[in-house]
Amino acid sequence: MLIAYSEDLIKLDPRTEILLLVIVNIVAFTQSSLYIEISLILFLAIVLVTCKCYKPACKWCCIFGLLLILQYIIFPISPQIISGTFAFLSLYFRKIIPCLMIGNMILKITPVRHFIFALQRWHLPQAIIIPLSITIRYFPAIREEVSHIKDAIKLRNISGVEKIECYLVPLMISATNTAEELSAAAVTRGIENPVANTSIIDLKFSIQDYICLTVGLGFIIMTFIVSI
Amino acid sequence: MLEINTDKKVMKGKDLITVGIFSAIYFVINFVIMVSSGLSPYIWVLMPGIVALLTGIPFMIMTAKVQKVGAVFTMGLITGFLYFVTGQFTIVILITFVIACGAAEIIRYIGRYQGFISNLLAFVFFSLGMTGSPLPIWLFKEKFLAQITEQGMPQSYVDILESITTNNMLVALFVAPIVGAIIGGIIAKVLFKKHFERAGIV
Prior knowledge:
The structure holds two protein chains of two kinds.
Chain A: H1 14-30, H2 34-50, H3 54-74, H4 80-109, H5 112-121, H6 126-156, H7 162-188, H8 207-227
Helix pairs in contact in A: 1-4, 1-8, 2-3, 2-4, 2-8, 3-4, 6-7
Chain B: H1 13-36, H2 41-54, H3 56-65, H4 71-85, H5 91-110, H6 116-128, H7 135-139, H8 141-150, H9 155-164, H10 167-199
Helix pairs in contact in B: 1-2, 1-3, 1-4, 2-6, 2-10, 3-10, 4-5, 5-6, 6-10, 8-9
């Protein structure tokens, strides 16, 4: 999933990405102007394209367009049941698309260790960085475990309420075992060393970071103007 | 001279990793339920209760394994952060989360991290943190309803929402997680006896 991290990629500093995420959150949820929403999506699409994430850019723009059409053309003319159930979901999903776009970009172009290093530069305590990075890393592992368990359950033809128990218990036990192995590996590599880590990565803000942040700031200003 | 670290109260590498892994499981269950509660306002109000019911097991395992200060708070912090990243964050939920996690930590501290009852109580308070999600509807009723109508929600949905936000439902909002947490904790205890203690992981 990670695009090969080559030197000729235009890179965004992970800190810019996090700040953009914060900005986008604020903008998306404190105003209701459709124009700002659309221009925000366009801006993010441009950023994605500059970082060579062509497919995600297209995908998110299409989804956004689809949801707009759903909301303004289809729902008003469809029966109560459909619009009542799905209107909320589609509206909410549309609102979080900017966040998902940035999230998608982060997943594609930023290796996790850059992220962790950025958080360390911000002096976040290890007590938060370590669990956070483990949590994020563990999500795909959960998916894998659940699919293994699903296969095993199919093999044994278990059904009904017992199924829930049969999903949960192996998941918990495997999680515990993973935790044990991971911590053994991590302690061996010096995670409990109170001395600060050195790193081969060097993070610097460059011109594209400043541009993104300035545009983001512009969006926030526009948001305040609109809501006043 | 080498100081052997006898500090048993602070979380170390192994505990942090355990917290991270079980926070991941907690968040996944929480998130799935949160998303499903977008289908109907009724489910949304009961959402903290449903979450409490189903997340008892990862929470209780984690509290059994990490008997130190800050475990619950970190779990809440990570959950809150991940929700923030996916755009579902308000100031209200921030406040309820902080209060809930703080109360849970204090309870655990008093109970000396041992004992099923103190962990269960901590879980009850922790689960109350999720009530911050539907809470703005009661707190800022007019403004909230106006905002979502402006953003294009169909009038029927807004009407249902308005009819739901009675004082009775407010009580239900807070009672549901308490009941759910107790049941969830008991289920966890049953599973502990049946499986986890035999497997040696608790």
